[in-house]
């Protein structure tokens, strides 16, 4: 059975659908959840998007305000109110339990489906249905491909959210982009996705930008190909701020991979890594308890200091 038909069958046979992504939602995680919710609407199934994050990055906050009322969002504590025998849980943009909004919810479901573009590892949730395409740019691209196969009209707002997820994870179609990525973007544009609205979601706070520039000036080039920047210890950063710094560092000549370290506002030390595809940064992040794929990866280390993580990373890169 083709993947598209297999997923359609699982949704249709379910009582209702719950969809969840990773902690610290970004536009790809949220966009793919919204896309799954749209598929459920098409098949006349009730869908609940599970979000436990108490704080959101700016773009996610904008989207959540705009979709209010058009998609049902609940916390994991509310699951028992809507859970029925035969419900299915769909996980997007991650395949590791420790990265979920709440990994305790897994025990509530007998049927679980993963839609992801990150590499499977020994930490991947076992004994569930895995639909993982490492060649896809994003979870939003995978969900868009499903929507295309089901031939239904996509709401302009939902199409824009999916396009935002693709634009984010490809860094404006610079990395992890192939023919299927452009097909997905074309389909979403035909469905009414607004590139202007996508750029609105991606707009940055000027004060955060200035802070990032200060971190970038501390960059060191290791072994002629790695860019490493360590943020000041006295300042805490959001996960997405470290990621944007890593994106910027990868743009420089002769740099094949970039690594950014900094204390995170939600605890621990954050590691954000990017690669031009010649170095598998996902495997490096796994050594620090995180994960990712060939091009981008991250981890949150809570049992080491910033200095200790830097020393370990420098040693690892040797």
Identify the CATH architecture of the largest domain.
Alpha-Beta Complex
Cα shape: globular
Span between N and C termini? 46 Å
Output the radius of gyration: 19 Å
By CATH, the topology of the largest domain is inorganic pyrophosphatase (n-terminal core)
**CATH homolog superfamily of the largest domain:** inorganic pyrophosphatase (n-terminal core)
Q: Which class do the helix and strand fractions yield?
A: alpha/beta
Q: Major sheet, described briefly? A: 7 strands, mixed
Oligomer: single chain
Helices, by number, come to: 12
SSE string: HEHEHEHEEEHHHHHEEEHEEHEEH
> What is the beta-strand fraction?
15-25%
Overall number of structural domains: 2
Strand tally, please? 13
Helix content: 25-40%
Structure description:
The chain is α/β, with parallel strands linked by helices. The protein folds into 2 domains: 200 residues, inorganic pyrophosphatase (n-terminal core) (Alpha-Beta Complex); 111 residues, Diaminopimelate Epimerase, Chain A, domain 1. The chain contains 12 helices and 13 strands. The strands form 2 sheets. Strands 7, 8, 9, 10, 11, 12 and 13 form a 7-stranded mixed sheet that branches. A 6-stranded parallel sheet has the order 3-2-1-4-5-6. Helix 2 runs antiparallel to helix 6, helix 5 runs antiparallel to helix 6 and helix 6 packs across helix 8. The longest helix has 16 residues. The protein starts with a helix and ends with a helix. The model has no long low-confidence stretch (mean pLDDT 93).
């Amino acid at each position: 059975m083709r993947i598209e038909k297999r997923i359609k069958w699982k949704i249709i046979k379910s009582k209702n659908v719950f969809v969840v992504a990773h902690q610290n939602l970004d536009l790809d995680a949220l966009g793919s959840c919204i896309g799954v919710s749209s598929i459920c609407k098409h098949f006349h199934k009730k869908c609940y998007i599970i979000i436990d994050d108490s704080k959101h990055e700016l773009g996610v906050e904008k989207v959540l305000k705009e979709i209010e009322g058009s998609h049902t969002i609940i916390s994991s504590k509310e699951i028992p109110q809507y859970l029925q025998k035969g419900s299915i849980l769909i996980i997007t943009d991650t395949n590791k339990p420790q990265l979920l909004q709440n990994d305790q919810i897994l025990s509530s479901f007998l049927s679980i489906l993963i839609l992801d573009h990150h590499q499977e590892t020994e930490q991947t949730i076992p004994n569930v249905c895995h639909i993982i395409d490492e060649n896809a740019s994003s979870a939003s691209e995978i969900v868009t491909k499903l929507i295309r196969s089901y031939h239904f009209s996509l709401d302009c707002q939902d199409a824009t959210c999916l396009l935002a997820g693709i634009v984010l994870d490809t860094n404006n179609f610079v990395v992890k982009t192939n023919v299927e990525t452009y097909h997905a973007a074309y389909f979403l544009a035909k469905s009414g996705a607004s590139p202007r609205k996508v750029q609105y979601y991606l707009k940055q706070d000027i004060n955060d930008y200035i802070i990032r520039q200060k971190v970038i000036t501390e960059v060191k080039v290791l072994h002629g190909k790695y860019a490493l920047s360590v943020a000041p210890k006295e300042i805490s950063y959001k996960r997405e701020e470290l990621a944007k710094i890593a994106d910027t560092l990868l743009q420089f000549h002769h740099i094949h991979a970039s690594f950014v370290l900094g204390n995170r506002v939600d605890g621990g030390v954050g590691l954000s890594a990017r690669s031009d595809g010649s170095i598998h940064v996902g495997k490096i992040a796994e050594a620090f308890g995180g994960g990712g794929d060939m091009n981008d990866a991250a981890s949150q280390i809570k049992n080491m200091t910033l200095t200790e993580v830097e020393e370990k990373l420098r040693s690892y890169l040797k």
